[in-house]
Write a structure and sequence with these properties.
Blueprint lengths: L1 H5 L7 H11 L3 H40 L17 H22 L27 H12 L4 H17 L9 H12 L11 H24 L3 H9 L4 H16 L16 H7 L14 H15 L3
Length: 309
């Protein structure tokens, strides 16, 4: 029996107890009683320790599973926190994937401002006929500065300006044919932009030419300069302005007054006036603002002042 007790494996706890007991007393009685008790106690203690250790291990396992919380970075939004790591990762990936798909539809920011392309809506085409418009260049530069993508830029410009044009909040670009058509309707004269010549078109051209001469004479009579002169002369380019000039001309005639020069004369053409008109688009046959009647006046005045070219 003692051999069994003394030779027990240390894993059983008995050897530890026997050793403690032997070390406690050298007498046989002490060895038989105290050491034996020590062996028992030690064994029990060993088993108890083993049992507690095992229990403690189970406690740790249960604690990690039920009591401990998964790690969350500081400031992580509550709606992304799951009850465990798996649920948290699922939520994070869902959020990431949503952003990824959204960014895919937004397009990319061009490498530079010149990388933006723009196709205007049908309503805006007359307003964006000039691709080198400085206003559009400025818009491209601002879009690149603020990280706006290519598709966003085109959609933004169209969506901002199309409703404004449709509501009449932005005036239409200048079109001389629109003005002539408007003038013809105001005076009861038929104007057809699709053809040249014809009684109605010739009458409208004559009226427009007379209005330009009236504006020039008015500037000379009133001795207007710079921007004031340019304003009065610009009246001859628009239907409403022509009506104003005709009214002024009629008022002057009623009072026996003349608007510079001689009635029915050269219309106030001088060397300075010819020089000013050199760059005027209305005498340029290739310009959309070309005025055939005004060009004829220009040529006649040039011949009168300088002789044949």
């Amino acid at each position: 029996m003692w051999q069994q007790i003394l030779l027990r494996s240390p894993e059983d706890g008995g050897a530890g107890g026997g050793n403690d007991g032997g070390a406690g007393g050298g007498k046989l009685a002490a060895a038989a009683g105290g050491a034996g008790a020590g062996a028992g106690d030690g064994g029990a203690g060993g088993q108890g320790g083993d049992g507690q250790s095992g229990s403690g291990g189970q406690g740790d396992g249960q604690g990690n599973g039920d009591g401990a919380q998964p790690y969350f970075p500081n400031g992580m939004p509550e709606h992304l926190r799951g009850k465990d790591e798996k649920e948290t990762l699922d939520k994070l990936f869902g959020a990431f994937d949503g952003y990824r798909q959204r960014d895919a539809t937004r397009g990319k920011v061009p490498d530079n401002a010149d990388g933006y392309t723009f196709t205007p809506s049908e309503v805006l085409k007359p307003f964006f006929a000039n691709e080198k418009d400085p206003a559009m260049a400025s818009a491209r530069a601002a879009a690149h500065k603020h990280g706006i993508t290519g598709p966003q830029f085109e959609g933004f410009v169209n969506d901002v300006y199309t409703p404004l044009v449709e509501k009449g909040l932005i005036p239409k670009p200048y079109d001389p044919h629109d003005e002539l058509d408007k003038l013809g309707k105001a005076l009861g004269v038929s104007y057809d932009r699709t053809k040249q010549g014809g009684a109605g078109n010739e009458q409208i051209a004559r009226i427009a030419t007379e209005a330009h001469a009236t504006a020039t004479n008015l500037v000379a009579t009133l001795d207007l300069k710079d921007s004031a002169a340019a304003l009065v002369e610009s009246w001859a380019d628009e239907a409403d302005g022509v009506l104003v000039l005709r009214a002024i001309q009629g008022a002057f005639k009623e009072r026996g007054l003349q608007l510079g020069g001689q009635p029915g004369g050269d219309g106030g053409w001088t060397k300075d006036k010819l020089k000013q008109m050199d760059g005027d688009p209305r005498i340029d046959p290739d310009s959309p603002r070309y005025d055939k009647g005004l060009r004829q006046q220009y040529d006649d005045a040039y011949k009168r002042i300088y002789g044949s070219r």
